[in-house]
Write a structure and sequence with these properties.
This protein has a single domain, classed as Rossmann fold. Helices cover 40% and strands 22% of the residues. About 4% of the residues have low confidence. The protein is an alpha/beta fold. The protein has a 7-stranded mixed sheet, with helices on both faces. Helix 5 packs across helix 6. Strand 1 and strand 2 form a beta hairpin.
């Protein structure tokens, strides 16, 4: 019995020391996936990298907050799924870069609250007011862990794919040098045009009016 326990203990010790990192072939090329656990929440976050993160040019980066409905189910209520795929495509085209996937569903309020917000939107509230009516902030996301993850994969000088200047501001305050903001306006359609117009007019996202008329 003691011999068996000793063998099991040895196996468990080995498992604990296996890096949570591996190659990940995708439709957008060969990436490296690395998992970062946040002990304060127990959630696992992802860094997908392609190529070398250190070089003379800023690293193209997308910091993408989890959206189950858009990323996995192809929801047309938002632009999250198309943004995720477009960012991976950009990284593939350039040949190197990083996508940080944060578990911040519903702009940080969680999946259940996000669907409750959808319910209020079905009744006429916009995406900002729906959050506020539920007692949540308009945007509860935090990018402290994203900055830590970027430094861990070897980059703190980036070109950031986002329409959200607040994301840029937070990263800069956390010591990440954002050399350029790269617009990422994709997936505009009848199902999300009002949502995107609210983000542009009330939440400070830089989305040109002409892009919402396509």
């Amino acid at each position: 019995m003691r011999k068996l326990e000793k063998e099991q203990s040895h196996i468990l010790n080995e498992i604990e020391h296996v890096p949570a990192e591996a190659s990940l072939p995708t439709l957008h090329g060969e990436f490296r996936i690395r998992i970062f656990n946040d002990p304060s929440t127990g959630l696992d976050h992802v860094a997908l990298t392609m190529g070398e993160m250190v070089g003379p040019d800023p690293t193209p980066v997308r910091i993408h907050s989890e959206c189950l409905t858009g990323d996995a189910f192809g929801s047309l209520r938002c632009d999250c799924g198309p943004q995720l795929q477009a960012a991976l495509s950009v990284i593939q085209k350039i040949g190197y870069g990083c996508l940080v996937y944060l578990r911040q569903e519903g702009r940080g309020i969680g999946l259940k609250a996000k669907i409750q917000a959808y319910n209020l939107q079905d009744l006429g509230a916009d995406t900002l007011d729906a959050n506020l009516l539920l007692g949540h902030p308009a945007d509860a996301r935090d990018y402290t862990l994203a900055a830590t993850m970027l430094r861990a994969v070897g980059t703190d000088k980036i070109n950031l794919m986002t329409n959200n200047p607040e994301k840029v501001n937070q990263l800069v305050s956390l010591g990440i040098e954002v050399v350029q903001r790269l617009p990422l306006v994709v997936g505009v359609g009848d199902g999300n045009r009002d949502y995107l117009e609210t983000k542009a007019s009330r939440m400070g996202h830089e989305i040109p009016t002409e892009d919402l008329e396509q």
